[in-house]
Amino acid sequence: MIVVTGAAGFIASCLVSRLNAANFNDIVVVDNFSVAKKLPNVEGKKIKEFVDRHDFFTWLDKNYEDVEFIFHLGARTDTTETNLDVLNLLNLDYSKKMWNACCEYQIPLVYASSAATYGSGTLGYDDDESIISLLRPLNAYGESKNDFDIWALEQTAKPFFWAGLKFFNVYGPNEYHKGRMASVVMHAFNSIKESGRLTLFRSHNPDYEDGKQMRDFVYVKDVVDVMYWLMHHRKNSGIYNLGSGEARTFLDLAFNTFTAMGADINIDFKDTPEDIRDKYQYYTQANMAKLKSIGYDKPFHTLEEGIQDYVQNYLLPGTYL
């Protein structure tokens, strides 16, 4: 059996689809399944068992001998969350418990970290484990993810294989439920569909023109391909960046979304909301050399390819992966 936590969420549900496509059908999905808006993400998939996240460790104590691999992708992913108790409970304490269980039962583990750990990027975007304790995230979500990365590296007891993945700006199908936290691609699609126009955040940094803020946008199909590969690789444990390796502007993203929809380009700007303005990343780009150095060589989608596939095969028809 393969365990996927956060399985009704965006990335994890796409991973379940990737596993099913490779004929892995004994999937145990873990989540809070009372959130109805996420349930379409798991409908129609080949799943062996649904386990509530609160019951998971009791379940694991009884079934660990049959568990081959754990993907721990469940977390509180709202970057505007300020309740430290919630973040510590779901992102830090739960992950520590998962790590310890994988050590006890010798189960390999891949878990979700985040590029939010890099903060303003003053130390760059290299997945060098020696600098992780020096990183200063810009929000409590990033701090919770970085705190766990630091804790994991300090442990003497480790799963025989483990990988923490610093996800950059992931976009793609199955994020319909995410609201404000959905990707800019999805927000752009909805805005263009409803009004024929798109409003982007104005730059409040003199080094960047409006719309020229840059992010490493990575297509979710590439993300799950990497995780699938790591499940088979099972060596070279550590923390890895997971982005496309190329920073692109929000204008690039906007133009490609208009093009994929066959719509005329119509863009204006508004001020970045004050509650996130001082925590806003103006540039991110994953250094992907470390992952490539251990043998991962599958090409990533370009922004053009990813947006076209996402818009034409999922957003326009309203389908799920």
Automatic annotation (TrEMBL):
Query: What biological process terms from GO does the record include?
Result: ADP-L-glycero-beta-D-manno-heptose biosynthetic process; carbohydrate metabolic process
Q: What class of enzyme is it?
A: isomerase
Q: Where does substrate bind?
A: 169, 180, 187, 201-204, 215, 280
Keywords assigned:
Carbohydrate metabolism, Isomerase, NADP
Q: Does the keyword Membrane apply?
A: no
Query: Its Gene Ontology molecular function terms?
Result: ADP-glyceromanno-heptose 6-epimerase activity; NADP binding
Q: Which residues bind NADP(+)?
A: 10-11, 31-32, 38, 53, 73-77, 145, 170, 178
Q: Which domain of life is it from?
A: Bacteria
- Listed InterPro entries: Epimerase_deHydtase (IPR001509), Heptose_epim (IPR011912), NAD(P)-bd_dom_sf (IPR036291)
Write down the Pfam families for this protein, in alphabetical order: Epimerase (PF01370)
**Entry-linked CDD domains:** ADP_GME_SDR_e
**Pathway in which the depicted protein is active:** Nucleotide-sugar biosynthesis; ADP-L-glycero-beta-D-manno-heptose biosynthesis; ADP-L-glycero-beta-D-manno-heptose from D-glycero-beta-D-manno-heptose 7-phosphate: step 4/4
What cofactor does this one take? NADP(+)
Report the EC code(s) recorded for this entry.
5.1.3.20
Active-site residue numbers: 141, 178
Cofactor binding description = Binds 1 NADP(+) per subunit.
Q: Which reaction does it catalyse?
A: ADP-D-glycero-beta-D-manno-heptose = ADP-L-glycero-beta-D-manno-heptose
Domain NAD-dependent epimerase/dehydratase: where? 2-243
Q: Which family does it belong to?
A: Belongs to the NAD(P)-dependent epimerase/dehydratase family. HldD subfamily.
Summary of subunit composition and partner proteins: Homopentamer.
**Domain remarks:** Contains a large N-terminal NADP-binding domain, and a smaller C-terminal substrate-binding domain.
Q: What does this protein do?
A: Catalyzes the interconversion between ADP-D-glycero-beta-D-manno-heptose and ADP-L-glycero-beta-D-manno-heptose via an epimerization at carbon 6 of the heptose.
Q: What name does the UniProt record give this protein?
A: ADP-L-glycero-D-manno-heptose-6-epimerase
Organism of derivation: Rufibacter hautae
